[in-house]
Amino acid sequence: MQKVTCLNLPNCYRLSNGTVELVFTTDVGPRVVRYGFAGGENMLGECPEALVKTELGEWKPWGGHRLWAAPEASPRSYAPDDYSVEFELEGARGVRLRAPVEAATGIQKEIHIALDEAGSGVRLLHRLTNRGLWEIEAAPWALTIMRGGGEAIIPQEPYGAHPEHLLPARRVVLWRYTDLSDARFTLGRRYVRLRSDEGAAAPQKIGVENKQGWAAYRLGPLLFVKRFAYVGGAAYPDDGCNNEVFTAGSFIEVESLAPLTRLQPGASVEHEERWHLFDGFDAGADEESLDAAIKPLLEGINVK
């Protein structure tokens, strides 16, 4: 592990296994601010100058990967997190990041990071703990800001013909500002895709009940994949979403969510993601070629 500066934050640390490298900061967060091949470009987005003004003060996204508590609400979700976080090494390639208790919400956030010994795999365990005096209902919400210029990929449920399949396959959730006629959306039989566009500032968001347990982000020849659990019958936030994508201009997030949980004072809830990164990804020009390119990679990392 090596101390570095990233996003103008001086107290950052790099973890590497020789194939990929990951940088986390202890100045704010908890945040992962870099993930990429060793010596290569950062797959995570960087927006150190952005800020959101709320009744609780100024919240900065900074970029990279963070942990929130769903469902979203203002100002609760945007409680400033520009405080130093504790970190503790866990093995040769692991670390625990723990933020102070949020005064406004009573929630404490932790992320445990473990880099695989070889390859591009990373395990991120997210934990919310209720440090308040009364019960709350919340869900861990893992949000990854990606480098702009790419396209998020959400798998559709396997296609089935009528009349053999009469019941709905899953939920698809839209926000009031979602416009499915926007050219950034590509709605196909196998995948739902949403691309970022620096010249298109209007926000777009879509959420799904993702039973396949993975989502991806394509940026040129690079493919980022995150895996996460789907719990059948569980109550998820946002009308049943465990996977959401948001974009506005070059800003784009690929998000996963855990089920809603009632937390008594002192109780915790966890949510795990697994990340993988591939180079030389050639998706071709249509959905069939995308499907042919992505399926062997997913099978290699045991994605359902």
- Under CATH at level 1, the class stands as Mainly Beta
**Share of helical residues:** under 10%
Number of domains: 1
Mean pLDDT: 96
The low-confidence runs, each spanning 5 or more residues with pLDDT under 50, are none
Rg, rounded, reads 19 Å
**Large-scale geometry:** globular
Distance between the termini: 33 Å
Question: Which class do the helix and strand fractions yield?
Answer: mainly beta
Strand content: over 45%
CATH architecture: Distorted Sandwich
What would you say this structure looks like, in words?
By secondary structure, the protein is mostly beta strands. It has one domain: Beta-galactosidase, Chain A, domain 5. Helix content is 6%, strand content 46%. It is globular. The protein starts with a strand and ends with a helix.
Please supply descriptive tags for the structure shown above.
11-stranded antiparallel beta sheet, 6% helix, globular, 25 strands, 2 helices, mainly beta, 304 residues, Beta-galactosidase, Chain A, domain 5
What's the quick description here?
The chain has 304 residues and is mainly beta.
Blueprint (SSEs and pairs):
Elements: E1 2-6, E2 9-16, E3 20-25, E4 31-37, E5 46-47, E6 52-54, E7 57-59, E8 62-63, E9 65-70, E10 86-89, E11 94-98, E12 107-115, E13 122-130, E14 136-146, E15 151-155, E16 172-174, E17 185-187, E18 191-195, E19 204-208, E20 214-219, E21 222-228, H1 237-240, E22 243-248, E23 251-257, E24 261-263, E25 268-278, H2 287-300
Antiparallel strand pairs: 1-2, 2-3, 3-4, 4-9, 5-8, 6-7, 9-14, 10-11, 11-12, 12-13, 13-25, 14-23, 14-24, 15-18, 15-20, 16-19, 17-18, 19-22, 20-21, 21-25, 22-23
